């Protein structure tokens, strides 16, 4: 059965999550931010498996991480058409955006067993939603839902994405700030695009959308128009 999924992929700060959330609201569909699930399992790991200052995952075997995720549990809960991340029954949507999680999420998300676990939970979430789900991430159209009827790959220049990320954090956007943040994002792009498991890349049948010169309203309108063409009625 072909899933009723709109897959929105792209690099960090390309507007994936905000665009996906707005598209879902326009269509009356669910919204699933795959990054929130990876951040939730990262939060659970650093809060419960930290060992004497060890870093870079020392002592964090895949088996321990996944056992923790099942025992707490780490899960997605559908609330008002949004799949909300929970850890041990607690809504962690705000806490997972902390800097300490941001610094470690790529490390945890690169573990093949973690990705397999997260993919299964995302697929189950889509099955449970009657209308359809807009899912955003980095490998949604290539790995998680390769049969999605609509795949969109958002891009923007590192400088524009840096300005957006700084604005999102409520920080200044001096030229030096933008250059520094753009460098960080470019390094994240490199890491995500060259990792061995589920690298960041557009699906061969994805619709590319450069958002550098677009505001969010324009981005959303473009994807909604595509969706109504692919999902008539």
Characterise this structure.
49% of the residues lie in helices and 16% in strands. It is α/β, with parallel strands linked by helices. The strands form two sheets. It has a five-stranded parallel beta sheet with strand order 2-6-1-7-8, sandwiched between helices. Strand 3 (74-79) and strand 4 (82-87) form a beta hairpin. Helix 1 (16-27) packs across helix 10 and helix 8 (158-168) packs across helix 9. The protein is globular, with a radius of gyration of 17 Å.
Oligomer designation? single chain
Q: Please state how the strands of the largest beta sheet are arranged side by side.
A: 2-6-1-7-8
Q: Which of globular, elongated, flat, extended, rod-shaped describes the shape?
A: globular
Largest sheet: 5 strands, parallel
Gap from first CA to last CA: 18 Å
